[in-house]
Structure formats: C-alpha cells, structure tokens
Design a protein that fits this description.
With about 200 residues, this protein is of the alpha/beta class. It has a single domain, classed as Vaccinia Virus protein VP39 (Rossmann fold), CATH 3.40.50. The chain contains eight helices and seven strands. The protein has a seven-stranded mixed beta sheet with strand order 3-2-1-4-5-7-6, sandwiched between helices. Strand 6 and strand 7 form a beta hairpin. The chain is globular and about 45 Å long. It starts with 12 loop residues before the first helix and ends in a 6-residue tail after the last strand.
Length: about 200
C-alpha cells in the first residue's frame, strides 16, 4: 500500500491535452457510449476512479454522474472538481456537468433512472506494461482489485435503459457470467464491450 496522497488534476497535463486535442466525439469511448452529432446521452460512470473518462465526456457536453466508493478517491475527485471550477469559466462549465456520488454503485444504480452506464473496473494485470503511470499505480494501491466487477456489470445491465459499456483491456478474456456484448469498439490497448439494452414493453 502507498502512503502518498492521491492527487487528481483536471486543469493541465494529459487530461487537459486529451480534452483539447484528443479527437472529440470521434474517439473510441464517446462512440461506444453513443455520443454523435445531435445525440448526447446522460451517462453514469459507475467506477469513477481518476475521473478522466468522465471529464472527457463532460467536456463533450454530456451530463455525467460519477459514483466512487473509495473514500480517498472520492475526496481526491471532490478536490479536483473544486480546483477546476475555480480555474476558469470554461472548466467551471464542464464541472457543472459532473455530479459526484459517494457509495457502492451496485447499491446505488437500482435507485437511479439511467440510460447509459460506463463500467471501468480495475483491470486484471497484464504484465509489466500494465501500470506504467504513477497515478495508476497509486490508484491500484489505494483501491485494490475489484472482485465484484461481475456483480456490478449485472446490476448495470439490469438498470440501464439503452446501453452499458464495459471498458476492458483489448486482449483480456471476456468477463464471465454476463451475456456477450452487442458489439465491440477496439482501441490500441483498450476495447469497449457495448451492450445494447432491449426491454419488453411494460
């Protein structure tokens, strides 16, 4: 375990560069979540973590609800949102689209009206290249593994009304105990398993 505090920064570095130069809605993640011209679904990021994906999606105009159960990570996200809000009007407007909830998404999701859910569990180790960045090493030290990711996916699939997206290492085996995805969007090292939801009329 690490004693180093977790610091999250939405105002500079790689996160801000991705916002400004990453390719907008043409990136794999926004495409997987259904963002396209004229369509911006509200999204629940059920495993907020460092908040990078939520920040990107909010910068593209989406309303994002972030759920984080780890106390230290939740506190770091709160501090990062506060810092970004005070930095510029542009960032403040992005922060206005990000709502942070403390708790376990498995318990919270069933009480929400949710169209689209993003699940990005702590990924299985992939060898020496898995944790290159210090922030990710720090996050793994703080959070540990996610042994209940399958249960979270099951809760998401039972709750979402339109789609669930599982962010997963490109070459990792499919998550067991859930249906096959409707389709996949492949990135360089990550894949997005997309589950389109069809429910019978009530």
């Amino acid at each position: 375990m690490t004693d180093k505090p977790l610091h999250i920064d939405f105002t500079s570095g790689a996160v801000d560069y991705r916002r400004r130069h990453g390719g907008g809605r043409g990136q794999e993640l926004p495409r997987a979540l259904g963002l396209k011209a004229g369509v911006t679904p509200p999204i629940v990021d059920a495993t907020a973590g460092l908040g990078r994906d939520a920040f990107l999606l909010a910068s593209l105009g989406a309303e994002i609800t972030l759920i984080e159960r780890n106390t230290a990570v939740h506190a770091a996200l709160e501090a990062a949102i506060k810092e970004a809000r005070a930095t510029s009007q542009e960032l403040a407007e992005i922060m206005d689209r990000m709502s942070l909830i403390k708790g376990d998404a498995k318990d919270i999701l069933p009480g929400l009206q949710v169209e689209t859910i993003l699940i990005d569990p702590m990924h299985p180790p992939r060898g020496k290249s898995a944790l290159v960045k210090e922030e990710m090493r720090n996050l793994r030290d703080i959070v540990g593994a996610d042994p209940d990711s399958r249960e979270l996916m099951q809760a998401a699939l039972a709750t979402a009304t339109k789609r669930v997206v599982l962010k997963w290492p490109r070459r990792a085996a499919p998550m067991t105990g859930i249906p096959a995805p409707s389709h996949q969007i492949m990135g360089k090292s990550t894949r997005y398993d997309v589950f389109m939801i069809t429910r019978p009329p009530e």
